[in-house]
Design brief:
By secondary structure, the protein is mostly helical. It has 23 helices and seven strands. It starts with a helix and ends in a 9-residue tail after the last strand. Helix 4 runs antiparallel to helix 5, helix 13 packs across helix 15 and helix 18 packs antiparallel against helix 19. Strand 1 and strand 2 form a beta hairpin. It has a five-stranded mixed sheet, with helices on both faces. The protein has a two-stranded antiparallel ribbon with strand order 1-2. It holds the Pfam family PMT_2.
């Protein structure tokens, strides 16, 4: 087989692996973390016939931008609300972002290095961690990459189309996760304009596109305020986007967390980032303008997130495409030898890890099915094939990148969804069965701190607001089904049994906040058959 055909085969393998990483068993893992806020918010919008006011337990939840809610809502209405449907729109955008990043890379690099950059992007933990979650991060990342790609393609032109497409990408990012993408891209664009003296971009066409973009950005906030008959959405926009950066009410973490999360999101190829920063700073005077722009942009973006007062690990995710380009520029210019050798040596261990993974999982008490064994063997054979192919393609390190991607895909696309469990899902499904089989039941939640989370409500498929009681005894007198989260106090347990309540426990010993206790009156209904 010719080298050209083998190079195409490598690209095909990459696309298959990325597709499996994004879409493989997408709906099998229960909702995780804050996914429920987006999923339940969209579901309740469908129930209420609203397009601008998400709710959780039928209380307004308007602190988040609307674009993810809209896309999740449309997917849920077309396919029915499930883990798969609420994640589908984000997964599609993630898949699209790979192709857009490929086009971006082709504008900066020759084909072999464009492939490398795209492979590094598709195999990065920052990409794979969020593509399978119904959260706003991947929406923001896709919009950012669209805007960055448009800018690179139109940077030498005064083009109204270019400016409109640029702000379209920014609009996707900002209507998904606020103004972070604006700050990041502004830093990059200003650095590039200064280095290349592209001052002609300050022209009427650009300002017209900016004006239209600002109008479209604030339109959903205006329509939300109209539906709610209050200016609260604009205050929340100010609090979440501006005040939070300088005077935050939460997420008060130290600045140095980004020294960990920046390289983490580039894993497993984080060592290249450290080497690239060292080498490029040391040889700054020898760099081309493009190299200087991406080096300074990475440093500026990092400093921006570090000096902002509100900090969380995933906030710095928008740095990912800039860092991938920086790493690829470093590999192209300096042709490092030690790191590729280290990663190549590590790649030879990957098939052994894959082949032994069922035994390792079984030793931790997981049940290994024939399907999992079949996929494991399939991935093992693929990895052996990649090791054999690496010396026969034009750029051998591409096969090494795919070896690392393959074991990531095995985890994110296969093992994680198959072995994930959720007490929130189990408890929610149980309550759904109760209220489905027995009509006209009064469903209540009891909590002196926090009530059930959105993930629970999504699985319970509530149709109306669940009242939250502070006093357990009153709730026991007035309600047929009670939901308690975190703990079940002994006095409540005793009182419930006296009043003929049956207690069903869904306990999570590792995370007590995810424990649920469902109390239902045995004189009113029989135990549902689950």
């Amino acid at each position: 087989m010719s080298v050209n055909l083998l190079d195409r085969l490598i690209v095909l393998i990459f696309l298959l692996l990325v597709s499996f990483a994004i879409f493989g068993y997408l709906g099998k893992r229960p909702l995780f973390g804050v996914e429920g806020r987006w999923a339940e918010g969209a579901r309740e919008m469908s129930l209420r016939g609203s397009n601008f006011v998400p709710t959780l337990n039928f209380e307004p939840h308007v602190t988040k931008p609307l674009l993810p809610f809209w896309l999740i809502k449309k997917s849920g209405e077309l396919l029915g609300y499930s883990e798969f449907s609420v994640r589908l729109s984000g997964a599609i955008l993630a898949f699209v972002s790979v192709f857009i990043f490929w086009r971006l890379s082709l504008k900066i690099f020759e084909a072999p290095y464009a492939k490398l950059a795209t492979f590094l992007y598709g195999s990065s933990l920052g990409f794979l961690q969020f593509v399978r979650l119904a959260q706003s991060e991947i929406y923001q990342l896709t919009g950012l990459i669209i805007a960055l790609t448009v800018y690179v393609y139109f940077r030498e032109k005064k083009s109204l189309i270019g400016y409109l497409l640029f702000f379209f990408g920014l609009l996707i990012a900002t209507l998904s996760k606020g103004l972070t993408a604006v700050a990041v891209l502004t830093l990059f664009v200003m650095i590039d304009i200064l280095f290349h003296k592209l001052y002609f971009h300050f022209n009427p066409k650009a300002f017209l596109a900016l004006f239209l973009g600002v109008l479209l950005y604030f339109l959903p906030y205006y329509l939300t305020s109209q539906e709610m008959q209050t200016s609260l959405p604009f205050y929340l926009w100010f609090r979440e986007n501006l005040k939070q950066a300088v005077d935050p009410y939460d997420n008060l973490r130290p600045f140095y967390i980004y020294l960990y999360f920046w390289p983490l999101w580039l894993a497993p190829f984080s060592l290249f980032l450290l080497s690239a920063l060292y080498k490029k700073i040391k040889n700054y005077s020898l760099l081309t303008r493009v190299e200087k722009v991406f080096l300074l942009s990475n440093l500026a973006i990092f400093i921006l997130f570090a000096i902002a007062k509100a900090r969380r690990g995933y906030y710095i995710l928008p740095i990912l495409p800039f860092s991938i380009i920086l790493i690829t520029l470093y590999i192209k210019r300096f042709t490092p030898t030690i790191l590729p050798k280290i990663y190549t040596w590590g790649a030879f261990v990957i098939p052994l890890i894959t082949l032994s993974s069922p035994l390792i999982l079984k030793s931790f008490g997981f049940t290994i099915t024939f399907k999992l064994i079949f996929y494991t063997i399939l991935f093992f054979l693929l990895q052996v094939g990649l090791l054999l192919l690496r010396t026969k393609i034009s750029y051998p390190f591409l096969a090494i990148v795919l070896l690392y991607l393959s074991i990531e895909v095995l985890f994110f696309g296969l093992y994680q969804p198959h072995f994930s469990q959720s007490t929130e899902k189990e408890a929610g499904k149980f309550v759904k069965t109760l209220i489905t089989e027995h009509k006209n039941l009064r469903l209540c939640a009891v909590s002196k701190e926090e009530g059930p989370v959105a993930n629970f409500y999504f699985y319970a498929e509530i149709k109306e607001k669940v009242p939250l009681y502070r006093e357990e005894e009153r709730a026991l007198r007035e309600c047929h089904v009670l939901i308690l989260r975190k703990t079940l106090p002994p006095q409540v347990q005793e009182k419930a049994r006296i009043l003929n309540f049956i207690i069903r426990s869904f306990e999570n010993r590792k995370e007590p906040s995810k424990s649920y206790y469902i109390l239902y009156n045995s004189s009113t209904l029989n135990t549902p058959s689950l």
